[in-house]
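User: I've been trying to design a sequence by hand for this structure and keep getting stuck. Would you show me what you'd pick, starting by listing the structure so we're on the same page?

Assistant: Good idea, let's start from the same input. This is the structure you sent:
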């Protein structure tokens, strides 16, 4: 039907090829916008967000692990906020947002990964396990509580206290990406 309409326009109303191209171009853009608007809001990161969602909130992630790294809870909480601010149109609020995140650190532990021939540890692994709850007030079906696990390996001969902050940043970056994917990309 659209093709017939365009053919009639081409032969009867607009004999100039440039005008014909312009109409097709504008029609294509218009149809694409209609199709996208029917599916919700999409961001450059691929996030699918309910069109009525405007805000999000993040509670301080509590640390219930047997080993407590002082900067871990703050780092994880802030990285979640920063990721969502930078990659979604949602605004951070101090009250209960349209999407509200809370959680707890369940485990923060180092374990040996590679033992050398002389029975010493060559590589260690830092593992972080976090339980996150996302309360989606606009789409109850997308509310979840899930355990996320991430780890990073490091040279066991290094002083852990001197590299811990870098390891925490690295492991939290991966963790936040997993939380983002679960929340907005239906991963």
């Amino acid at each position: 039907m659209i093709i017939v309409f365009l053919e009639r326009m081409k032969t009867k109303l607009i004999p100039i090829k440039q005008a014909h191209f312009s109409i097709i171009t504008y029609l294509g853009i218009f149809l694409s916008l209609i199709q996208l608007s029917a599916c919700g809001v999409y961001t450059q990161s691929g996030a699918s967000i309910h069109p009525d969602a405007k805000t999000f909130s993040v509670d301080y992630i509590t640390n219930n692990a047997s080993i407590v790294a002082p900067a871990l809870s703050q780092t994880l909480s802030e990285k979640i906020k920063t990721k969502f601010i930078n990659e979604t149109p949602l605004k951070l609020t101090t009250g209960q947002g349209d999407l509200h995140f809370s959680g707890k650190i369940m485990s923060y532990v180092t374990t040996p990964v590679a033992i050398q021939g002389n029975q010493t540890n060559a590589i260690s692994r830092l593992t972080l396990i976090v339980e996150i709850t996302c309360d989606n007030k606009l789409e109850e079906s997308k509310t979840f509580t899930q355990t996320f696990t991430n780890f990073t390996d490091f040279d066991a001969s290094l002083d852990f206290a001197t590299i811990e902050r870098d390891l925490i940043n690295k492991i939290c970056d991966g963790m936040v990406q997993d939380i983002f994917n679960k929340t907005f990309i239906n991963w």
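That's my pick for every position. To get oriented when you compare it with your attempt: Strands lie at 41-42, 48-49, 55-58, 62-63, 91-92, 99-115, 121-136, 144-155. The mean pLDDT is 82.
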